């Protein structure tokens, strides 16, 4: 029996029984027929009534035939998050239970392994657009990207706990929601809505390694689970190597490199608290062969400045990992982001031993894989270190890519 759900969640006003009826532009009709899960406000041509966040919205085509049904959000440019397209059907508890069950089935290989930190529901790609749920040991972290989910949150939490029993559920909000607290009726980012409040950090396992996570205030839901497979890959190529991990956050790539046999690991980040967490992660795994033996150095400061300083000091590494935060969140920011990736690649290559491995990642959704690869490849060529044996990877298996915009993570492994 799970602990009761927070009354602020269970007492949320129910959606209006009347669905919002919409007619949309021809281009929007085409997108919905292709299965795109978003309907933007500017594509709406007719609307039956104002509607509130979480009301069902039914979209009809120009012949007034059913096209899609989803959750309405008057506070977001994405006015409808589509749940069913082409074929009508109820949006009820059984519907949500089915979507959660299907999501868990896709992740069966993770659920039974030595990892208990993974994504259970990946929003749009799991048929629940704007709704994310991650598990860290016995804690579930639910993150909402739309006000439309608030009236349905109690149902989703109940369903999740039935299928993934847990001691605690923590609620996180995207900035769009946190910036409008008057719409949240007392809820706030980081609130524990089931179980005992989370006081401090938790520990979860990834491929047998122990990691500290802060589900209340950490980035994303506490950790970057999408890089799990890439962290393991860095570990596999680090034996006997000197490894530089830039934008290290809490040291995920660093710890995997050490477990893989790296003799030296250097973690660079702007955040002193993040680097303190990285040191604690190494201490958590001091009993793991390789981790206790590796020399772990932490450097705090601006990555671009520190890379230049390391190069000037004559430092060199066999593996360089560059995993920056998003440089572009909108298309208008893409040109500047590509310049930043190119500069970062040049700085990283200046520290790489000849024949070493460089790992470059981008989580900027508007930056295409082709543009990212071309930008860093051109920078490498200009630096006289052309990339060889380039391999491209992406998200871990619990972050499925079922529509174009879901592919935000690009990761290149190359020799130079």
Structure report:
This protein is an alpha/beta fold and 416 residues long. The protein has three domains: 66 residues, Archaeosine Trna-guanine Transglycosylase, Chain: A, domain 4; 107 residues, Transcription Regulator spoIIAA; 192 residues, Vaccinia Virus protein VP39 (Rossmann fold, 3-Layer(aba) Sandwich), CATH 3.40.50. It has twelve helices and 20 strands. Strands 16-15-14-17-18-20-19 form a seven-stranded mixed sheet, with helices on both faces. It has a six-stranded mixed sheet with strand order 2-6-5-4-1-3. Helix 9 links the parallel strand 15 and strand 16. Helix 3 packs across helix 5 and helix 10 runs parallel beside helix 11. It is globular and about 70 Å long. The N and C termini lie far apart (56 Å). The model has no long low-confidence stretch (mean pLDDT 95).
Q: Give the full name of the CATH homologous superfamily of the largest domain.
A: Vaccinia Virus protein VP39
Q: Point out poorly predicted stretches.
A: none
Whole-number tally of structural domains: 3
The pLDDT mean sits at 95
What is the approximate shape? globular
